[in-house]
């Protein structure tokens, strides 16, 4: 586990299993008892919130204990047992109102409701001042999330820290809260500069402007209540206003590396009084090419003994070790809620994969949204800025967000999405990291990203703060190997689905339409009644069928086309070929076709792939050709062709291993002749993961060609 290597002192998820939650926050049980007594006394004296001095004296004793704990940590095994819930998960369940014991609410002496007795993570169990607690309460935050609970005391007690938790678990407040307490009531209170023209006490670096803005607004809200001012510095906005703020003096600076560096070089930013520097999503800063800027900025602090450095991230690739070793103190701590656990992506998200060719996307995505977004927001990720703009243009009501859009416009777009003015955002990775937007129910990734971190971050834009969500990864069937790679590396177990079919769409659109019609005022009836009567009398359809059409029209459907399971293309049907023998290569399947089909029909075959068990070949044909295949098989001995209703597990198409170069292609490409198939590609994709398991298919022989009219 990287964190074990990079950390001198470690608090891993496994290690936390050995500590009871109280001990985790309050040191040893004796310390907890001592603290309880003090707390009681303070409650009696009515000074609990104003005085932090007692805490400071406690800290001395505690530091010794903590050091010991850290030494023990070093020896600990960080391997997490993925089958057992970790303390973090149990805590999360408790915090999020999950399966754990329901906390009994009690009243504080000051009238504030709290559940301090039952919930070890309740705010009042931490050295959080009253004013900050009230602000947190007003935002619906009553207890700390596990990553916050694990790191709060460590940061407040002056340690450097590497923090790691899955997406949406509250890493931002994990540094915001202890920093604010430290500056106003803790170790840095006395030495913090104040007054006009003061240099900043805190510098937070983030990879994107959007993220910088988001973290800045948390500092504004919570810092504002304890009298600390903040300022956000990023490129694309005018220097002038930023310079004025810096000249006046500000306590907290949040920004992106490029602009921060510019201000340092222009002499606007003085880091000599810095108490905290925070690297959030540091891995992404390096990915985005900010290496030199980040190192230059970190290197500007001359006396590193006076500054605390915190590094938070959802993922910790190897190279983060280097930054951590170079810029964090020797006795730094690591709080790792992911550790060696297999699942790196959010556990609150349903991870689905769906085969879909590029050309089928614009027709398919609206139906996916209809079926899976539950009326909430959707973010669609594309690999390039061009495809983000193009797709946004094709989807009604969607807006694009990417790096080529002017900063001011990007802010307007994000604000519109946050406020619900539009519900579909098509974005590049600019929105992948850290963005915290309410009610994002669905993430669609148009193709498998190159690195697993991108998958984890993108899918993590839903299922945040204990909520659930759905992430759907689209892939070209020929790229199924990328799906397997992401599955392997992220620890996610994908559910394989196929394109929403008329029945799925009818189900979700039908209730939407029924609601829409029920909401229409009765005042319209007299005006439309005679038209309705005329329609009914002139139509051959029943009143119910006509109403069904009206429902469809009310939600924008005038036609619903059948989609293939393999490529999600409209007006294509997915068939299964079996010969009673193992099919080792696509070319074998094509030579079978030649026995009973004319060339022009074979050329219509798309995306031929072998099933994971090797007993069949799955392929798409135009709906108009289905009958030719089904009737043709009757003239070929030992050949069976069936229409599939569910896609079976397929073999990986790992082109890098030289497999199956002769397969039929999607996206307009023609089948290249069915040669060059490679039996070495007969790899299994694990054979599982399909909803409902097994193969759903309809025997052609049982229904005869006429049954296929419904596919047209
Ligand atoms: N203790 C808490 N109780 C309830 N909600 C919280 C708590 N802490 C944070 N949140 C909320 O949880 C959401 C996710 O928090 P945050 O954005 O900090 O997650 P994150 O771990 O940084 O995610 P990512 O890795 O995606 O950046 C935010 O809306 C935040 O307000």
List keywords for this structure.
712 residues; binds adenosine-5'-triphosphate; helicase
Q: Low-confidence parts lasting 5 or more residues at pLDDT below 50?
A: 1-111, 655-712
How would a textbook summarize the main sheet? Answer: 8 strands, parallel
Q: In the CATH hierarchy, what is the class of the domain at 130-336?
A: Alpha Beta
What is the rounded Rg?
A: 30 Å
CATH architecture of the domain at 130-336: 3-Layer(aba) Sandwich
Beta-strand percent range: 5-15%
Number of helices: 27
- What structural class do the secondary elements suggest? alpha/beta
CATH T-level topology of the domain at 130-336: Rossmann fold
Ligands (ions, cofactors included): adenosine-5'-triphosphate
> Considering the protein shown, what is the CATH homologous superfamily of the domain at 130-336?
P-loop containing nucleotide triphosphate hydrolases
Number of strand segments? 22
Q: In order across it, which strands form the biggest sheet?
A: 1-10-4-9-8-5-7-6
Distance between the termini: 54 Å
Shape: globular
**DSSP helix fraction:** 25-40%
pLDDT averaged over residues? 75
GO molecular function: ATP binding; hydrolase activity; RNA binding; RNA helicase activity
Pfam families: DD_DDX21-DDX50, DEAD, GUCT, Helicase_C
Catalytic activity: ATP + H2O = ADP + phosphate + H(+)
Protein name: DEAD-box ATP-dependent RNA helicase 7
């Amino acid at each position: 586990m990287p964190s074990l290597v990079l950390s001198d002192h470690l608090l891993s998820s496994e290690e936390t299993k050995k500590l009871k939650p109280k001990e985790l926050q309050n040191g040893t049980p004796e310390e907890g008892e001592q603290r309880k007594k003090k707390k009681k006394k303070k409650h009696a004296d009515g000074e609990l919130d104003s005085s932090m001095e007692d805490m400071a004296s406690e800290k001395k004793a505690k530091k010794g204990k903590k050091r010991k704990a850290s030494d023990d940590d070093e020896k600990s095994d960080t391997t997490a047992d993925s089958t057992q819930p970790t303390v973090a998960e149990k805590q999360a369940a408790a915090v999020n109102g999950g399966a754990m014991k329901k906390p009994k609410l009690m009243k504080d002496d000051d009238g504030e409701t709290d559940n301090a007795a039952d919930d070890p993570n309740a705010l009042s169990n931490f050295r959080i001042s009253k004013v900050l607690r009230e602000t947190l309460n007003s935002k619906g935050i009553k207890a700390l999330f596990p990553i916050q609970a694990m790191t709060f005391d460590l940061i407040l007690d002056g340690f450097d820290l590497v923090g790691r938790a899955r997406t949406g678990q509250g890493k931002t407040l994990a540094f915001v809260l202890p920093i604010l307490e430290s500056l106003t009531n803790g170790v840095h209170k006395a030495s913090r500069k104040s007054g006009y023209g003061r240099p900043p006490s805190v510098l937070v670096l983030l990879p994107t402007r959007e993220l910088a803005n988001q973290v800045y607004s948390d500092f504004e809200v919570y810092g504002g209540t304890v009298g600390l001012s903040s300022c956000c510095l990023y490129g694309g906005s005018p220097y002038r206003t930023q310079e004025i703020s810096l000249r006046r003096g500000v306590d907290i600076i949040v920004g992106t590396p490029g602009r921060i560096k510019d201000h340092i070089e222009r002499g606007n930013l003085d880091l000599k009084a810095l108490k905290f520097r925070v690297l959030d999503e540091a891995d992404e800063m390096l990915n985005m090419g900010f290496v030199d800027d980040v190192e230059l900025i970190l290197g500007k602090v001359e006396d590193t003994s006076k500054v605390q450095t915190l590094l938070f991230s959802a993922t910790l690739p190897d190279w983060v070790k280097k930054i951590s070793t170079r810029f964090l103190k020797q006795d730094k701590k690591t709080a790792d809620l992911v550790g060696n656990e297999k699942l790196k992506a959010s556990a609150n998200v349903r991870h689905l994969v769906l085969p879909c060719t590029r050309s089928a996307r614009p027709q398919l995505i609206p139906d996916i949204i209809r079926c899976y977004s539950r009326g909430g927001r959707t973010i669609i990720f594309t690999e390039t800025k061009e495809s983000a703009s193009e797709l946004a243009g094709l989807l009604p009501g969607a807006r694009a967000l990417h790096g080529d859009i002017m900063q001011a416009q990007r802010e307007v777009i994000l604000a519109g999405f946050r406020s619900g003015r539009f519900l579909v955002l098509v974005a590049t990775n600019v929105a992948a990291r850290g963005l915290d937007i309410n009610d994002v129910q669905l993430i669609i990734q148009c193709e498998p990203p190159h690195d697993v971190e991108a998958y984890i971050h993108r899918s993590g834009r839903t299922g945040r703060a204990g909520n659930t969500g759905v992430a759907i990864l689209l892939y070209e069937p020929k790229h199924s190997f990328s799906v397997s790679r992401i599955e392997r590396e992220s620890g996610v177990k994908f559910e394989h689905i196929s394109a929403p079919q008329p029945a799925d769409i009818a189900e979700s659109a039908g209730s939407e339409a029924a609601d829409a019609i029920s909401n229409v005022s009765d005042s319209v009836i007299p005006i439309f009644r005679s038209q309705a009567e005329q329609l009914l009398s002139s139509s051959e359809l029943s009143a119910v069928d006509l109403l069904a059409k009206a429902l469809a029209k009310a939600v924008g459907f005038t036609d619903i086309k059948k989609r293939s399971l393999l490529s999600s293309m409209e007006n294509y049907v997915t068939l299964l070929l079996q010969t009673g023998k193992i099919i080792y290569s696509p070319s074998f399947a094509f030579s079978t076709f030649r026995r009973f089909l004319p060339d022009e029909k074979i050329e219509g075959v798309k995306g031929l792939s072998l099933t994971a068990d090797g007993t069949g070949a799955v392929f798409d044909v135009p709906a108009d050709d289905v009958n030719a295949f089904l009737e043709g098989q009757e003239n070929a001995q030992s050949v069976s062709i069936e229409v599939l209703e569910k896609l079976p597990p397929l073999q990986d198409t790992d082109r890098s291993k030289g497999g199956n170069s002769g397969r039929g292609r999607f996206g307009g490409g023609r089948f290249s002749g069915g040669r060059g198939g490679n039996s070495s590609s007969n790899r299994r994709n694990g054979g599982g993961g399909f909803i409902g398991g097994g193969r759903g298919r309809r025997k052609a022989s049982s229904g005869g060609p006429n049954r296929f009219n419904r596919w047209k």
